[in-house]
Amino acid sequence: MTEAAVSSLVAAPRSFKRATRRTKRVTTALLCLFLAYTFFPLFYLLVASTKNNFDLFSTFGLWFGHDFSLFANLRDLFAHSNGIFGRWLFNTFLYSLSAGVGAALFATAAGYAFAKFSFVGREVLFGAILVAVMIPQTALVVPTFLLLAREGLTDSPLGVILPSMISPLGVYLMRVYIEQGVEDALLDAGRMDGAGEWRIFRSIVFPLVTPGFVTVLLLAFVATWNNYFLPLIVLSSPDYFPLTVGLASWYRLASMGGGGGQAMFSLVLVGALVSIVPVIILFLFLQRFWQGGLALGAVK
Amino acid sequence: MNDKVGFQGDGFNRRDVLKTAGASLAAAALPSMPAFAQSSVQLTLWSWLPNFRDQVDLFEAAHPSIKVNLVNAGQGGDEYTKLRAALKAGSGLPDVCHLEFQLVRSFEQLKALADIGPSANAHKDEFAAWAWSQVSDGDKVYAMPWDSGPTAVLYRNDVFDKYNLTVPKTWAEFADQAIKLHEAAPDVFLTDATFSDGGWTTSLLWQAGWRPFEVNGAEIRIQVNGDVAKKFAAYWQKLIDAKAIDAKPGFVTEWYTSLDEGRYATWITAGWGPVFLTSFAKKSSGKWRAAPLPQWDATKVASANWGGSTLAALAASQHPKEAAELAVWLTIDPKATELYTTKQFLFPTRKAILESSEFADKPFEFYGGQAVNKVFVESAKAVDPSFQWSPFQDYVNQTMGDKLGAAAAGNGTLAAAFDSLQDTLVQYAQDQGFTVKT
Amino acid sequence: MIEASAAVNGNYNGGADASPDRTMAASPKPPLRKRRRFRVSIVPYLFLAPFLLVFAAFLVAPLVYALYTSVFRDMLVGGRRFVGFANYLRVAVDSDFWGGVSNLLFFGATQVPIMLSLALTLAIVLDRGALHARGLFRLGFFIPYAVPSVVAALVWGYIYGPAFGPFSQLARGLGLPPPDFLSDRTMLFSLANIVTWEFTGYNMVIYYAALKAIPSDLREAAAIDGAGAWQYALFVQLPMLWPAILLTIIFSINGTLQLFNEPYLMRSIAPAVINTHYTPNIYAYFLSAANQQYNYAAAVSFVLGLLIAVIAGAFTWATRRGGGASR
Fold first, then answer.
1. Alpha-carbon dihedral of residues A242, A245, A249, A251, nearest 10 degrees?
2. Which residues, in sequence order, are CB contacts of A186 under 8 Å at separation 6+?
3. Alpha carbon distance B63, B51 (integer Å)
4. Rounded to an integer, what is the distance from CA B33 to the centroid of its chain?
5. For B359, phi and psi rounded to 5 degrees?
6. Domains of chain B
7. Domain range annotation of chain C
8. How far apart are CA A160 and CA A220, in angstroms?
9. In this complex, is the C-beta atom of C297 within 8 Å of any C-beta atom belonging to chain A?
10. What is the DSSP letter of B147?
């Protein structure tokens, strides 16, 4: 293939350039197509959020209705049930941030242990932690609830935050990150200077792995933000609900028959829109951490 | 050893601070509990009824020493799951909870409900007989009837006029009209038979004389595929096969739009239906009317109940007297119960309201000025009180929905589904330790 | 193996990190050695402790409790009874359970290859092209990951709506019969679409990052050898991406077999299709929530977990590479 191909490539620069331009157009078109696919449902969500309850059912789904009710819907959203939606928003931030920070801290510490120390049962333990990712969530949620009940932690934010601080993937990522980003020489230098292990971790290791730390934080943050099943089972007071459970409860309220049901779809949709905005903003500002962190898992 | 101490010192503090910060942040953000006197009793009430706080405030006003914490712990199945989990764990239960009629027997089985007979029996005659029979066992009363859903039909007057349909008085007439409509307009159906909703199907079977369950302590008689079921299955199977009716799920976007647009000419529904319909069907306002449920036998008017709830005091409550008082008061107080019909538009179980002309004769513009409540009040009078629920009714509803829904969608026949249902329920009851008779 | 640090933070150490700890063997001072050995024995456990504590309390403990629960039977009449393996034997012959499994195996066999191929193609295309808005594309594709499945299901549910969804409205406008996305035959594909929408971007980002870790001189070398763009992709990039691909396949197997949120939420609009045993996790959920058969639900969950482990393990073993693909 080699020489003939090379000479043909070199000898026909114009057609080559045309080919690459065409290829570029094709690839750009492909990418744009997929981008359209990606934004299609989000566009629907945006359009639907501008409609009131009646227009929702009677006008074409992908274009606006007769009234522009976005701000009215937003007002209703935050006013409904004494502002419970605002509470749900706050709860979600609280749970996600706490779980995120906790997960990242724990994962970093654990990853450091796996990466830079050798101890009995290291690989077995690591393997066990990774296997934990495979465990079906449904198997765990009800027993978790029963155990939490025994400790009096049901219907409490801790019942949601604590289990969400477990990030086996985070431990894996931090281990890889630390193995590759922190030189043993640095650690030994620290030790020979007489620094304590904690000091070494805090002052030498931690600053070097901040990108990884932020990645794990983000992963756990998003996972907690989007979590539905755990808070559904553990929490019973709406005051403690995160957005997913709250929105789903409104959706069920709108759907169920029997005395007391209501049709409040427009609220549900506007709520859904509001609920995805913070994480999208987060993505926008913290892009590089995503790309970097996921790289580790991919390559190692 | 300073490194070890240092680590423990710092690490412990940091983690601890994080946890306490998290918990205290959450606690601080919660509305602060009002300080109250030592003698005041604090009750927790789980209910999903919207705007219930108003009636609860009335209760507190009438009972200064009782404070009620109203919590919406989920609607229907969600709340029941939490109740059962809390029962298993032995903690986290409310004092009073919102329980649909069909679940009272099931929670009685779990010994979760308190007997409020002493406070409740005085009011027995204030309620419709069938409602009382479902919450009581002789002198023992396990819940207070609250709202109900006697069944009847809402239909589109304009669609009926357009296709020259008559309001069917019997099921035979109903079938004829369905086929006639289908021939005239393949895209319009006389009704949507929501077989994937166990509650809906049960109410129609109840009307037809279905008595599937009879419980006697640890013994249960189960017969779901008897003659009544066979007749019912044959009737609807004919309509399904002829595609004269639709069999899609209810209470979803498609269904709401179909009703509004006149794709379904009737809605076989319950007492809470009329107001519910007005909340989403703006376009068809003024075109709906109410009519009694078609009868199997024109000479023997029978009806059934679909939905409706009770308030039950839980056996685990630390304040049984106050809990009983809460459940009873909220369902018998004249002002509160009147508010249920005017504010939340619940269909009542109290005779005083059912028999009042203010309730029954109220005209509804949405229904062309017809006093639709009256139709449902009449239906309520014909609800047969001999129907019994099973002690595991949500399981029954789910399984019915699964099997009958699949059959109605074309996977097998309704008759076969009933047979399969019988086998499954018998197996389940045996697994749960019951002695099963068929 | 390619070092990841180059891709991540730019300080490529040339493999120095991979070398073993030389200083330990070379330490001259006895007291220091003794201290280090002591440190080595306790310290890692201290760093592990916070994670292990939460891990033990909220993962291991419930697991053990679920295992314990699965060998009993709690009855409405008669209370708790020890039944040994009876629950597990019942799962083995439970047609509802295996029906759910077969739904997901079919689902996975079609959806996962399509999604990962799409993600791979997009990543390769993004990596090669000198596009202006590359960052924009990358971010855009990743956005669905930010959307909770509750929201995704709501939105796609409407789009799928048979009588009044946008596609049906268009079809009717053209005089064609409306497409039924929610029928028995099409439900799995409709669900596959939702899951593909949610996760293609995520997988693409993983592949893209791995692609970026391939040294660019390889591409030049290949070009000199006369390899065209697609040959380079197929014979050079793909093999080097294998670890990433394997990772995403394992995650996808795991995610597919545990499918719950999307079909559960679809149940509200198609309860006749999504019954209470449509997927194993839905089955386990209803067993606990509606049927009060907690013990059986625990057994179902364990069998599911075992199944996932077996399939993922078998896949890894079957595709294991002899000497690694790196240069």
1. 110
2. A204, A208
3. 20
4. 33
5. -80, -50
6. 41-148+307-360 (3.40.190.10), 151-306+372-437 (3.40.190.10)
7. 92-318
8. 12
9. yes
10. E
Q: Please tell me whether residue A89 adopts helix, strand or coil conformation.
A: helix
pLDDT by position in tens, chain B (length 438): 232 222 233 333 333 333 344 444 444 444 444 444 457 899 999 998 888 999 999 999 999 999 999 988 877 887 898 888 788 777 789 999 999 999 999 999 999 999 999 999 999 999 999 999 999 988 999 999 999 999 999 999 999 999 999 999 999 999 999 999 999 999 899 999 999 899 999 999 999 999 999 998 899 999 999 999 999 999 999 999 999 999 988 887 678 878 988 999 999 999 999 988 887 787 899 999 999 999 999 899 999 999 999 999 999 999 999 999 999 999 999 999 999 988 888 999 999 999 899 999 999 999 999 999 999 999 999 998 899 999 999 899 989 998 998 899 888 999 999 999 999 999 999 999 999 998
Handedness of CA A56, A57, A63, A64 (dihedral sign): negative
Kindly state the tokens that stand for C152. 């995704």
Q: What gap in Å lies between CA A190 and CA B254, rounded to an integer? A: 67
Query: CB distance A196–B3 less than 8 Å?
Result: yes
Check if C290 contacts A (Cβ < 8 Å).
no
**Option in B84, B248, B409 nearest C184 (CB):** B409
- Partner-chain residue, chosen from C269, C271, C273, that has the shortest CB–CB distance to B253: C269
From C158, C161, C271, residue closest to B405, measured CB to CB:
C271
Closest-approach residue (CA) in chain B for C165:
B254
pLDDT tens for C220-235 read 888 788 777 777 778 8
pLDDT of A10 reads: 46
Beta carbons of A279 and C212 less than 8 Å apart: no
Contact criterion met (CB < 8 Å) for C271 and B392: no
Q: Considering CB atoms only, which of B249, B395, B402 is closest to C270?
A: B249
Which residue has tokens 């006008």?
A59
- Which contacts qualify for B425-431: CB closer than 8 Å, 24 or more apart? B425/B222, B425/B224, B425/B390, B425/B396, B425/B399, B426/B222, B428/B392, B428/B395, B428/C291, B429/B220, B429/B222, B429/B392, B431/C73, B431/C75, B431/C293
Q: What is the pLDDT of residue B374?
A: 94
pLDDT score for A119: 86
**What DSSP element (H or E) covers B318?**
none
Q: Which residues, in sequence order, are CB contacts of A285 under 8 Å at separation 6+?
A: none
Q: How far apart are CA B27 and CA C314, in angstroms?
A: 49
Please tell me which residue of chain A has the smallest CA distance to B75: A253
Q: Which chain B residues are closer than 8 Å to C290 by Cβ?
A: 77, 81, 394-395, 398
Q: Do A166 and C212 touch (CB under 8 A)?
A: no
User: Which positions in chain C touch A291 (Cβ < 8 Å)?
Assistant: 138, 205, 208-209
Token code pair at residue B79:
């709340």
| Measured distance CA(C13)–CA(A53) in Å, rounded | 60
How high is the ipTM of this complex?
A: 0.79
Nearest to C58 among A4, A146, A162 (CB): A162
Q: What's the rounded Cα separation, in Å, for the pair B218 and B239?
A: 40
**C137 to A31: CB separation less than 8 angstroms, yes or no:** yes
- In tens, the pLDDT along A60-114 reads 767 777 778 888 888 888 988 788 999 999 999 999 999 999 999 999 999 999 9
Greatest alpha-carbon pair distance for chain A in Å reads 81
Inter-chain CB proximity B254 and C269 less than 8 Å: yes
Phi, then psi, of B96 in degrees rounded to 5: -135, 145
- Residue whose token pair is 């606690």: B27
Architecture of the domain delimited by C92-318: Orthogonal Bundle (1.10)
CB contact under 8 A, B74 and A198: no
Distance of residue B91 Cα from the nearest chain C Cα, in angstroms = 18
